[in-house]
């Protein structure tokens, strides 16, 4: 049997990676989509902020539950099967959501969507390890974040325009069809490892599949959890990303529309800027961290900048629009530090545990919005003054201020936890 003699050509690596990234694009799109239809959802389903926050959080409930199993399964089954199944179930969940006549059915659709797209990030990281050189890992991860955030941007102004033209139900049903086509494309083109099609793998040591019996799976998870950085970085990521996704994914648009007098489209533009800045910050901060050979100082400084930005946004709500935009960009760029977190946690333990470690870390990432979105909704309803317009509850500045305090506390938690992490100096543990 002839041995492979060359690494895969770049275009082949990017095709494989790109299809996986498209499901990650879908994950961000679905994550943010409710933000531009809050008024229609509250009116159609006759719900308030608490119920709307819970509806949006159903995505995160199943997403979080799936992260550790996904990390373990990607090490055993490989990313291809997970991506195919994820795209198929995401299509089904989107179809159910688009056809729902009651909030309970809509919640079920969101639950299926969250569980299915949960495989995208960890599977994509696994493909990055196999299809790209190790020195490009942080960069490729940063590009992945850009792709995901582009999905969130599409779920901003463009999605709102389509919803205004066609209503939200036909738009969601069209999204379901496109996601089904993605499942077919992944089945046709994606392979787990370059060696599957005759090339040299960039990570041959992870080609061997671990044992899949329950004892072995629990042993791998226990081994990942033995590392202090696993706990610190996972919860730090929750504290850092939670406010970004709570603001851009649900509460930012009604806040800006109510208290800055912006149209929903302009409000969506500003929340999209938050995510675009985050996408740009990911590869820049990741590359800078690679260049200086350290993770902790960049991660800590950017988390501190994000905390300062949220604090100003909360306590100085009457900002000029230009200053508000600058502040949002600073917060978003700083929050791109999540890319450092994934590289950081991967380097803190042997590479053979990379999939499981990424799943644990991504669990932490999604804990933030999973907790913040419904908690902020509860506080908004608690401080609601009783004003209703076109069947939608309106919340005053005091209500938003009480809810946004949770975002500041979350960001502060991230700063504290990062300060206790152990530096890896950008070297992979053996």
Q: What do we call the CATH homologous superfamily?
A: MFS general substrate transporter like domains
CA(first)-CA(last) distance: 31 Å
Shape: globular
Q: Residue-averaged pLDDT, rounded?
A: 87
> Could you say which structural class the secondary elements and strand pairing correspond to?
mainly alpha
Number of helices: 17
In CATH terms, what is the fold-level topology?
Growth Hormone, Chain: A
Low-confidence stretches: none
Helix content estimate:
over 70%
CATH class equals Mainly Alpha
CATH architecture assignment: Up-down Bundle
Q: How large is the radius of gyration?
A: 21 Å
Any key phrases for this structure?
1% strand; mainly alpha; Growth Hormone, Chain: A; 430 residues; two-stranded antiparallel sheet
Structural write-up:
With 430 residues, the protein is an all-alpha fold. It has helices at 10-32, 38-45, 49-76, 79-99, 103-117, 119-131, 137-154, 157-166, 168-189, 214-225, 228-259, 264-292, 296-315, 321-335, 338-347, 354-382, 397-418; strands at 388-389, 392-393. α6 (119-131) runs antiparallel to α16 (354-382) and α11 runs antiparallel to α15 (338-347). A two-stranded antiparallel sheet has the order 1-2. It has one domain: MFS general substrate transporter like domains (Growth Hormone, Chain: A, Up-down Bundle).
Please specify the SSE layout and strand pairing:
Layout: H1 10-32, H2 38-45, H3 49-76, H4 79-99, H5 103-117, H6 119-131, H7 137-154, H8 157-166, H9 168-189, H10 214-225, H11 228-259, H12 264-292, H13 296-315, H14 321-335, H15 338-347, H16 354-382, E1 388-389, E2 392-393, H17 397-418
Antiparallel strand pairs: 1-2
């Amino acid at each position: 049997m002839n041995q492979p003699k060359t690494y895969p050509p770049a275009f082949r690596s990017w095709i494989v990676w790109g299809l996986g990234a498209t499901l990650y694009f879908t994950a961000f799109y679905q994550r943010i989509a409710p933000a531009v239809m809050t008024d229609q959802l509250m009116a159609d389903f006759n719900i308030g902020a608490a119920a709307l926050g819970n509806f949006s959080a159903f995505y995160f409930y199943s997403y979080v539950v799936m992260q550790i199993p996904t990390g373990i399964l990607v090490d055993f089954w490989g990313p291809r099967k997970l991506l195919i199944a994820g795209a198929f179930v995401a299509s089904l969940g989107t179809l159910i959501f688009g056809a729902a006549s009651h909030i309970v059915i809509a919640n079920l659709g969101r639950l299926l969507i969250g569980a299915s797209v949960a495989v995208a990030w960890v599977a994509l990281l696994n493909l990055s390890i196999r299809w790209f050189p190790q020195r490009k890992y942080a960069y490729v991860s940063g590009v992945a974040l850009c792709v995901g955030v582009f999905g969130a941007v599409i779920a901003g102004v463009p999605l709102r325009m389509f919803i205004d033209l066609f209503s939200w139900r036909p738009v969601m049903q069209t999204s379901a069809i496109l996601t089904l086509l993605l499942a077919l494309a992944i089945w046709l083109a994606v392979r787990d490892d370059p060696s599957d099609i005759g090339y040299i793998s960039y990570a041959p040591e992870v080609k061997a599949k671990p044992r899949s019996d329950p004892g072995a799976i629990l042993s791998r998870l226990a081994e990942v959890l033995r590392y202090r950085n696993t706990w610190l970085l996972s919860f730090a990521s929750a504290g850092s990303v939670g406010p970004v996704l709570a603001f851009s994914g649900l509460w930012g648009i009604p806040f800006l529309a109510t208290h800055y007098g912006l149209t929903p489209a302009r409000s969506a533009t500003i929340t999209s800027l938050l995510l675009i800045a985050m996408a740009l910050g990911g590869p820049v901060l990741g590359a800078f961290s690679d260049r200086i050979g350290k993770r902790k100082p960049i991660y800590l400084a950017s988390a501190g900048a994000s905390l300062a930005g949220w604090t100003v946004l909360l306590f100085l709500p009457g900002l000029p629009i230009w200053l508000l935009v600058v502040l949002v960009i600073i917060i978003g760029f700083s929050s791109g530090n999540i890319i450092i977190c994934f590289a950081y946690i991967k380097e803190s333990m042997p590479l053979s545990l990379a999939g499981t470690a990424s799943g644990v870390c991504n669990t932490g990432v999604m804990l933030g919005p999973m907790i913040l979105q419904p908690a902020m909704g509860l506080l908004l309803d608690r401080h609601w003054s009783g004003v209703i317009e076109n069947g939608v509850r309106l919340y005053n500045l005091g209500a938003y201020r009480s809810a946004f305090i949770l975002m500041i506390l979350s960001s502060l938690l991230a700063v504290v936890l990062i300060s206790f992490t152990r530096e890896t100096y950008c070297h992979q543990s053996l």
